[in-house]
Design a protein that fits this description.
Number of helices: 11
Radius of gyration: 18 Å
Number of strands: 11
Order of helices and strands: EEEHHEHEHEHEHEHEHEEHHH
Mean pLDDT: 97
């Protein structure tokens, strides 16, 4: 059985348990935790621990933290939170969307080497190693800087064998270009998960992605633009088409984020993302799974979605 780099060290794929495949303990900006921690609200470490303790008590065993360097990754925070809560956390290397101007000339092989170091040696100054790769694109498509990062992630995958999660934009069918890049780089598409795919109900497009061999991250709940109900209806339709073994539901939930000042000058106790999903990492347990079962999805299929698929995706 394969082993996976968690923030506490290697774990067996067999020990993942109930897994959420795209979440965030914290999203901010690179270096914000160290330089301006008060923007994250009072006592953020304790709040993050409490948040994940609730998730663990509700039956969540593992989560993939999709927070890259440019999204404010703080690996030591993840280690502390994982140890205190009992939730396994697998952190990414790679890049999201914020490629600063001064990095636009960086080379593919340069970045691939950096990502491989995160996997094999650990994030700089720590012994915490990445367990999955990530790249991204949105409505502008795969811009030149983002193509550099996508190809670097692909080359790091080829060298290390780690799977790839892909922030994509289904409304623009951006995964068509992302998958083309992966094919050019020799990526094993059965180790690729195209995320945020439930931001559309376009079954033809989603089936095309699955036909390429990829997994689908149905990981925006409750989400915007597409209602939670229609997201679940779309998932059920894919299950009925025989794709249950390639679907990975999650939330893209954020535990810690900047608490924005209000017009009256006050600072709210909760950030905006929590207001939109007060159930946080348990929304799936409290709403989506009951809805799926009411639609006729069996407990065995629920286990496939949340236990078997993550294990298989990581090579177990």
């Amino acid at each position: 059985m394969s082993t996976i780099n968690s923030v506490l060290g290697p774990i067996s794929a067999a020990d993942l348990g109930f897994t959420l495949m795209h979440e965030h303990v914290m999203v901010s900006a690179s270096g914000l935790w160290d330089s301006y921690p008060d923007l994250l609200g009072p006592d953020p470490e304790s709040r993050a621990i409490e948040c994940l303790k609730k998730a663990k008590a509700g039956g969540v065993d593992t989560m993939v933290d999709a927070t890259t360097f440019d999204l404010g990754r703080k690996a030591t925070l993840l280690k502390t939170v994982s140890k205190a809560s009992g939730v396994n956390i697998i952190n990414v290397t790679g890049w999201w969307l914020d490629v600063p101007r001064f990095m636009w000339g960086v080379g593919v092989n340069q970045m691939a080497r950096e990502f491989v170091r995160d996997i094999e040696e650990g994030f700089r100054g720590t012994d915490i190693r990445a367990g999955i790769l990530k790249c991204a694109a949105v409505f502008e498509g795969v811009t030149a800087p983002l193509e550099t990062m996508a190809r670097a992630v692909a080359r790091a995958h080829v060298q290390t064998g780690l799977p790839i999660m892909v922030h994509s934009y289904p409304t623009g069918q951006v995964a068509r270009r992302q998958i083309k890049i992966f094919k050019e780089e020799g990526v094993d598409l059965t180790k690729v998960k195209i995320d945020h795919s439930n931001d559309t109900t376009d079954l033809e497009y989603l089936t095309w992605i699955l036909d390429q061999g990829c997994y689908l991250g149905l990981d925006r709940y409750p989400g915007r633009f597409v209602s939670p109900h229609m997201r679940t209806v779309t998932m059920k339709a894919l299950i009925d088409k025989g794709w249950a073994e390639r679907l990975c539901p999650a939330h893209d939930c954020i535990c810690l984020h900047i608490h924005n000042e209000q017009p009256d000058g006050s600072i709210p106790k909760e950030h905006d993302f929590t207001k939109g999903n007060p159930d946080q990492f348990l929304y799936m347990k409290k709403h989506v799974i009951p809805d799926l079962m009411e639609m006729g999805v069996s407990q065995a299929t629920i286990n496939t979605l949340f236990v078997d698929n993550p294990r298989r995706f990581f090579g177990g």
